[in-house]
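Discussion board: Methods & Data

I've been asked by a reviewer to show the raw model output for two of the constructs in my manuscript, not just the figures. I'm not sure how much to include, so I'm pasting the format here to get opinions. Each protein appears as its amino acid sequence followed by a line of discrete structure tokens. Is this the kind of thing reviewers expect to see in a supplement, or should I convert it first? Here is construct A:
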Amino acid sequence: MKQIIIIDDDIHLARLMQDNINVYEFVRCDHVFTNPLDFLADPMEADIYLLDIVMAGKNGLEVIQPILKLYPNAAIVMNTIKDDAETIFKALQAGALGYIDKQSFQMNFSEVFESIADGGAYMTPKIARQVVRHFSKKSSAKEQLTDREKDIVNGILDGLSYKLIADKYNIAIDTVRMNVKKVYRKLNINSKSELFKMMGNN
């Protein structure tokens, strides 16, 4: 039987989830924490941790790595109303194996935990669509660029200065600047931070 710990600051929802979990024979939830700091002050081992993201003191994204350092074999599942691509990728990059749209949690409940318990990963359909849309948008954006513009974008994403990019491709620094302007115009962005947000999760 897989042990589950819930960390969610909505105690009423957390208790409802706990009751729903304990209906199933293959999972069990005996502990609920309403604050990530309370959990970290007195951590308990479980097979699966169900984390909200927006919480007081420390958000769920900040709790993923501390939990995995304590319990490397644990599975982290985010259960949240935040469904933007940036937050989803931050959670997955930090080590989460599942990402659930909180509004549809109960509809996907048994499938979620069966997948995780069997060593897999799970995203609710709404979250999966966000991921697909993100990659489709990124692919479409790159197709607009020339080979030279792609080279310069990759240099920027690798953290190179304009001078280092110019040296790497044996071009003038003014050529780098000109191509950066073209990239920004084509992608309808105005800064490096927007470029990273659009293409930085390759």
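Construct B, same format:
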Amino acid sequence: MSISPIAQNTRNQSWWVEHLNEIGLLIALFVLVAVFSQTAPNFLSDRNLINILRSAAYVGIVAFPMTFVIIAGEIDISVGPAVAFAGVAFAQLVSAFAIPIPLALLLVCAFGALLGGVSGWLKVRYAVPTFISTLALWSALRGGALWWSDALPVIVPSREFRAVLGGDFLGLPTVVWLMLATFVLFSYLAILSRYGRHIYALGANAAAVAALGINSARLRISIMASTGIFAALVGVLIDARLGSGNANAATGLEFDVIAAVIVGGTLLTGGHGRMTGTLLGVLVIAVLANGLVLNGVDPDVQQVVRGGVILLAVLVNAALAKRAHGATGK
């Protein structure tokens, strides 16, 4: 059966409306690169571009599971301290307790899953908003990391560990390859899996999900656990880069992660978001931060600029959501 020209035109218009955010982010990314390449002489150097990718990777690895969390209508603001605590815990397990590196990695990731899962369980069992439970974790984990390390770096003695996870592979930092693998994994889950479809449905209409017999409690717990797992992984990756666990690492990472997800088009109201948008959001945030630093912009002004970008993204996403609903007749 052939599609009429009117129907085809309507379908094309809907596609453009649906992907306006990603198209806008691509344009914004090209504009930022063009501007900073003119204002900062070293911006396009190989070393600086690698630094941009590396900083983007640490954010992106957590941002992709965070996209699912926000699509489901939840939030996790504890990921920054979770990264720092996992880094300190991993370094202590390896150096003080002589636990093999693979086992230490599994233990800190399992602990991260437990902490995230507890936040989801508190929401399911006692209706505690995830903002509140993760706010409590934000304070407890940062304080716990400082106490356990005496606010001093904890050295990871293995050179092989630093070379493999903190080094390069095929010309790119290992952490960048891990970010790309994380992107592929969560893109597959979002687009092709029943699990991903259930998460979108949960954020769009939780009552309908419950009526269909879908285990929404298990969904909420699992998505909160996923941010804990990947935050712990990033903590280990930062240890590999620095050669030590540091309680002050990843300060403000939760801001960058949530900002990248929002800039990427995921709605805080839940039910809508794409991993491609998050990837572009991560790159925009990383390029913007790097360009501001190279141009010598005052750190306080940098925070103002980044806050303005997030506010603009929220306003644009709200307008696009209304337009998309009008275009699809919803």
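Answer (T.O., handling editor elsewhere):
This is acceptable in a supplement if you add a one-line summary per construct. For B, something like: The first helix runs from residue 5 to 18.
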